[in-house]
Design goal:
single chain, 143 residues, alpha+beta, two-stranded antiparallel ribbon, 5 helices, 52% helix, 17% strand, elongated
């Protein structure tokens, strides 16, 4: 009986769970060491160290729009700013750039925003304007 308990304890310590958690992300086989957090990817020559790719900005009409920075800058803003931010995201998703610009203008006019937040809104507005121009150019080219 004692031998069975020792065997079960040894199995739990050394076999289950394995020190690696394996999963697939963006078509890349990855494993993470549960104890030290080291991530490796499976390559032709075996497991190699892995550096995740830099996060990509969402792209609309070949223009990267920095929505993550806009979201981050407005995290502590009021409920009206959050609703306007949702409106911006929604209209961008469906290619309604003029509506997105109107929502950004309304957002910029809110009195409780800081200058840093307004600068981020200006930067995103410029990116949305460029996406709108690209959309118009694509429409003109297809006619």
């Amino acid at each position: 009986m004692a031998g069975g308990a020792a065997l079960a304890t040894a199995w739990l310590m050394f076999v289950w769970p394995t020190p690696w958690r394996e999963y697939k992300s963006d078509g890349v086989n990855l494993r993470v060491n549960r104890f030290i957090g080291k991530t490796e990817s499976l390559t032709i020559v075996g497991w190699q160290g892995y550096d995740p790719p830099k996060s990509k900005l969402p792209t609309f009409n070949n223009v990267p729009i920095d929505l993550p920075a806009l979201r981050q800058s407005l995290e502590a803003a009021g409920i009206d700013a959050q609703h306007a931010l949702s409106r911006v995201s929604y209209t961008l998703r469906y290619g309604r750039y003029l509506d997105a610009l109107a929502a950004l203008d309304g957002l910029k006019g809110m009195p409780d925003l800081t200058d840093a937040q307004k600068q981020v809104i200006d930067r995103v507005s410029g990116q949305v304007r460029q996406a709108a121009k690209n959309q118009e150019a694509a429409k003109a080219a297809s006619q």
